[in-house]
Amino acid sequence: MRAVRGIVTALVALGLSACASVQPGVSQGPQAERPTYTPGEKWIRSDGEYELIRIEKDRYIFSAGAGREIELTKDLAIAKVRRGKDVMAFDPPPKLTWPLEVGKSGYDQVAWYRSWNPGGLHSITFSWKVEAYEDVQTFAGTFKAFRISQSLSWRQRRGGGERGLVIWYAPEVRQFVKAVGSGKTEAEQLSFLAFQVLAVDRPGPAPIQVALREPKDQAHVTTEGITVTGRVTGGTGVARVTVTLNGVEISRQDETAAPKIEMPLEIPVTLKEGKNILLVTAADAEGTTRQEARTLFYDRPRPVSPPIAPPVIVATPSPPTPTPPTTATPSPPLPPTPPTPAPPVVTTPPPPPLASLQVTLTSPQDQVRVEQETIGLAGMVTGGKGVSRVVVSLNGVEVSRLGEQTPQRALALNLPIKLREGPNTLVVTATEPDGTIHQEVRTVHYEKRVPLTVSVRYPEDKSRLTDEASVVAALVTSSKGVARVSVTLNGVEVHQQTERSLPKSLAVRAPVTLREGANVVVVSASEPDGTAHQEIRTVFYDKPKAVEALPPPPPPPPSRDQWAVVIGAGRYESSEVPRLRYTVPDAEGFYQILIGPAGFKLEHVLLLTDKTERKPTLRNIKWALGTFLARSAKKDDRVFIFFAGHGAPEVDQQGVERDGLAKYLVPIDAEPDDLYSTALPMDELQTIFNRIEAERVVVFLDACYSGAAGGRTFASKKTRAMNVDDLFLERLTRSKGRAILTASRPAEVSLELPELGHGVFTYYLIEGLKGAADLNHDGIVSLQELYEYLEQQVTQKARSVGGNQHPVMKGELEGVLPLVKVQRP
User: Fold this and answer.
1) Could you tell me the domains of the chain?
2) 147 in the Ramachandran plot: left (φ > 0), alpha (ψ -120 to 50) or beta?
3) pLDDT per residue over 33-80, tens digit each?
């Protein structure tokens, strides 16, 4: 490419510089900001799996191996595409202006290089426009995307041409997802750049997750106070987290206004003796909920009784044995008196205690795994005080509510529950009339039964491809897990992967190189038990035909020079011709631009004004244009002509003009009643053009021809002001290499304003050449940039003072004409 850059440098030096114009978006619809990428990101496309391998010189370089590379600017414009031996490049790369929005457009003048084209390098105009924001279907699915139409066009002596491409950018995945050639014929399409995205190598936002470190499920604790620790995460942001204990909310963290990606948990709770149900419920920014449950048992420690001390035995001495006294024989004892019986005590037994509130679930079992989406919830809720309400929730969302105005001793549960894939938290909450709550929790895992399926996304069966390098993209799914996948091309295995983790869904991508003609692609997959399935695709590779080459560019022209005649006529000799105040400052200002930034040699610029020695009379003007320029300018030179002064119409005696009026440029010695012999007919410019050998002549006219009052025009007494057309300008610019920029449309007035000290057209002409018209900021003001700048600024300024003035450019110049280099501070 070093040689290519050398050629590009030469072309730029010859005037083939870049230029751009961006129109602001006209809609208030969606916008897409410019994305940024980091090394390692992948674009999985039908023309290869491209990975961003490096970023250098403000360019992203994606590689698909085997000599396949794509270089993009930071604005995602194509700089270079390499496919083996074939290379296509733009230098400098075109520009895309961000943010994208419908109606936005732009263009650049660039050099286009293609290795297969004998001419190699060509100067082209690259233009683009955002046409719509729409759904686009790709092999990876449907995306909302901006449709951008792009066109490459050129003109040469031996003809020209155009190539087209339509490309879609999807903000959702931050990449181009599809490109197709556009044009009536295949030769007019940029099929070399066509592709579709096969998969998006970017995971979507992570689902909301609740991860609890403490407490563990079914834990028995001996302290009533514990701390719930963990975290809640969600790719779209965590909006709310609530914690309930035995049906009573004890904590709530609400971040709805600014959802967080992660929310830590550290919440103290006080348990009741016995069984406790702890629920942590989280919701993300989109309203999706996730719930985690813990069943805890608080075993209150029993009080310890103090030990019983053994009795103390104290030894007591025995008393002396007394001598029995001598007594008389006792009388026999009297019989005892029987006691009076007490009346019987009658006791009433206490009433039995009321049964406590109970929730008994017979279905489903805790931690059960099911393959059906709907299960039945069955059970009974009983309570001695009665049951006033039963609420059933799934994953934190209420799905059923049973309420009784008169509390019932028992309520039966029998209702279907629709699960979502993965773990589901089912909670039944019962309430007594006094507000006592009891809960039961079940965790149910729904594993959808999916047979082993191989879905080949690309290529389609019987499809015909024009690129030998491609990608096989498939999706393999199985509820039992995918153990192994292989891809074969024409009987040879080109890709194989074994999965120990047994994923239930596996994306497969395998780069392949096709042979000419028919190709057989087989994608095979197997489950852990050996069950296998395969899909077969037949693909045809049609080797592209040789691309019709553009004609080689003409040989570089020899070194060229620049010549100019600058005229400012203001002090007219006839009292019947209104004098103009600012035509001389106009000419002097343009003259300074030419001998300054434009680089004209002083002796190559002829200035005719009221103040110069050579005045702008008819004879001097004809000599300057028809003799000085004709004798000086050579074929490869370029010529500028500037005139600020009156224009005037007169009745066309020859009947050539469609509007019946002949048009003149008015020198200072003109007689208003005899313009034919004393003024310069515009048709005389055709003769002057023919006398000038230079192939590039640009004329700037700050004059007008309507004959209306108030501007740089007047009409003779014999001429009635009428509508004027521009047929005469079209006639003058039929010659190749001639362009005319006029200050206004033929029927409009060219204004001059004291506040500017110039004619409006010339004021902005000078400002544009000083650098304001460098629309693409490449340091060079081209003719096309200058005209677009004038058209906008002059029109706005004239409208602001109540006028109606629109500059006009007629004629075309081959290639791009650089006018001046911008002098930056």
Assistant:
1) 2-199 (2.40.360), 209-298 (2.60.40.10), 358-446 (2.60.40.10), 453-541 (2.60.40.10), 562-752+808-813 (3.40.50.1460)
2) beta
3) 999 988 888 888 888 888 888 888 788 999 888 778 899 999 999 988
